[in-house]
Write a structure and sequence with these properties.
Order of helices and strands: EEEHHEEHHEHEH
Strand content: 15-25%
Radius of gyration: 15 Å
CATH class: Alpha Beta
Number of domains: 1
Shape: globular
CATH topology: Leucine Aminopeptidase, subunit E, domain 1
Structural class: alpha/beta
Number of strands: 7
Strand order of the largest sheet: 1-2-7-6-3-5-4
């Protein structure tokens, strides 16, 4: 599914984020910048240079993002975004999720990124409900693309399974954006 936002294509695909041919991939990281899930896959495929760079970043607070090189990935950058743990952050969870996506985009613009791939932040081990997270993620991206100066030509959500893809496609349809 693809939509047009100004000069940027926003698309959803089911797949493996480590296999995306984009300038930057967003890593669903924890505050220590080391873990499992998407993070573990990115570190396994990207190789040890990503972790070596992460060690020099001093962690990353929830709701923020930091960049490293991408090692053996086809991307140039890995943007490590720390989303909220749903049960732990309570009423602040939505604002922290917005901040994690926005911070990722700000880092991407700072690095001159034209294409970026996102996973669904916080919806795995951090237990953020998909039906709440997908509209927040998409709304944040759309608002950023409409209101900020950027060179982003492609924003792709790479979603791990059919359930997640369906939730994001449903949320995207509700935004009534023009098809690309």
């Amino acid at each position: 599914m693809k939509r047009q936002i100004g000069t940027t294509i926003l698309e959803m695909v089911k797949g493996d984020i480590t296999q995306q041919n984009v300038d930057a991939v967003v890593n669903a990281a924890n505050s220590g910048l080391a873990g499992g899930g998407v993070d573990g896959a990115i570190h396994r495929v990207g190789g040890p240079s990503i972790m070596a760079e992460c060690r020099h970043l001093g962690g990353c607070p929830t709701g923020q993002a930091k960049a490293t090189g991408a090692g053996n990935l086809s991307a140039r950058w890995v943007i490590h975004a720390v989303g909220p743990v749903y049960d732990m952050h309570g009423p602040r969870a939505p604002e922290l999720l917005v901040s994690a996506y926005r911070s990722s985009l700000e880092v991407a613009v700072e690095k001159g990124v034209e294409s970026i791939a996102f996973p669904s932040l916080s919806t795995g081990a951090y237990r953020y409900p998909l039906t709440e997270a997908a509209p927040i993620a998409l709304g944040t991206i759309v608002e950023f693309l409409r209101s900020q100066s950027h060179n982003l030509q492609l924003v792709r959500f790479v979603l791990f399974d059919e359930k997640t893809l369906n939730a994001y496609e449903s949320a995207l349809r509700r935004l009534n954006l023009p098809e690309a």
